[in-house]
Fold:
Amino acid sequence: MLLFIVVLGYPYAAVSQEKAVMAGQWGTYGSGPGAFKFPAMIAVDRASNVYVVDQHNHRVQKFDSTGTFLLMWGRYGSGPGEFKYPYGIAIDSGGNVFVSDMNNNRIQKFTAGGGFIGSVGAYGGGNGQFRYPYGIAIDKNDVLYVIDAFNYRVQQFTADLQYISQWGSAGRIGIKLYMPHEIAVTKEGHLVMSDRQNHRMAVFTPDGQLVKRFGEYGEGQPAAGGQFSEPHGVAVDESGNMYVCDRYNFGVQLFDASSRFKLQWLTTGLFDNTRHFPLGIAVKNGSVYVTDHYDHCIRRYKILYK
Structure:
């Protein structure tokens, strides 16, 4: 059942000409179809189907745009199509689905129906190897970018999972960009990453040149727009607006393509002001989909204009 509830943001969000309205929610804790155990990242295809990394169930679930269950695939293991704590997800122009299989240190590729196509990766520091791949993203040319977290780098692959190049180092990523988790492609083709432990966002060119940073630390009710407490998921819409899951401020922040703050709202419980933990985010056709990692559900929002 879909519920239509206005989600109240912090007081400073009232100056915006927009507001976030919750248009629906689905999922509960469990292992059956449509249930989740700690959902991680989320992606939406061209037909507005929603794919969710159901991390502790070691699978991917697919829904229509309103949350109707369609199918799922995966189980615990290291064989083709199996997962050990998957994390990131991305979809190419052909509708193929890529998943970062974190504890198997590989990227797997599937059809839109969950059919296994191929994989790349093993534990290590060589080209095409990983030490815990986290967020992944695909640009308009179907170049796949992978945050190779504990090798402190970003690796690039073709849509056929052929290695292209890499950039980053412990000094450059491990210090200046500390614990990056999620990645998205901007309208200009740059890469925006959540600089988690530095409580800010960082934007790079595809070959790793820093374009800009924005944000600073702020936590709790006094936190202003543009202040973060461990940002995680990031998504970019068709107009170039950026959406960031501000995990320990229990909400989402919205910025324009120039990284100017526009709006913030809490991701709360349905009938109370319980604060949960927004982790992954995806945007398509005016809908904003957010995974609540600890409430084991998906929430869908609409941005309304005054």
Notes: The CA atoms of residues 5 and 126 lie 49 Å apart. The longest strand covers residues 18-26. Helices lie at 170-175. The longest helix spans residues 170-175.
